[in-house]
Write a structure and sequence with these properties.
alpha+beta; two-stranded antiparallel ribbon; single chain
Length: about 140
């Protein structure tokens, strides 16, 4: 009787661990998606600066963050850009400096992204380990 009680407690524990790991996996996947979007935005920013520097006679500017509407315009300068430095600070710089700032931010994000992918992989392995343990425990309980 005590042995069955202990096995039942083990099953509940393993199931709770699986649920907790699944939550961590989902949260990590959400963070990865956010970082991938941020990296993509930085790539687009770099590409836009390059495009304006190389052929910036007339460009298309988005009118909203969701890119639902655009307008055509001519940049006042083909070598002056305002870039986000962090903590709501911006700086007006030349194209080269702007691209360097964006590249550094992108590098940091890509490093964080790699770390999150490694964490996701570790969580997936741990999840599979607990899933296997649960299957073995259930099988053992059925045999008794």
């Amino acid at each position: 009787m005590a042995k069955q009680q202990r096995r039942a407690e083990e099953l509940v524990y393993i199931q709770s661990q699986l649920a907790a790991i699944q939550e961590q996996i989902e949260a990590t996947q959400a963070l990865i998606a956010q970082l991938e979007a941020a990296v993509n935005n930085l790539k687009l920013a770099s590409d836009s600066i390059d495009g304006i520097v190389k052929h910036g006679e007339e460009v298309i500017f988005p009118l909203d963050p969701g890119f639902n509407a655009y307008t055509r315009g001519r940049p006042l300068s083909r070598d002056r850009f305002i870039v986000h430095l962090g903590l709501e600070y911006y700086a007006e710089t030349d194209a080269s400096t702007a691209l360097q700032i964006i590249a550094r931010k992108r590098g940091r994000l890509e490093k964080s992204l790699q770390e999150l992918r490694e964490r996701l992989n570790a969580l997936a392995q741990l999840y599979e380990k607990y899933k296997k343990a649960l299957a073995e425990a259930l099988q053992a309980a059925e045999q008794k």
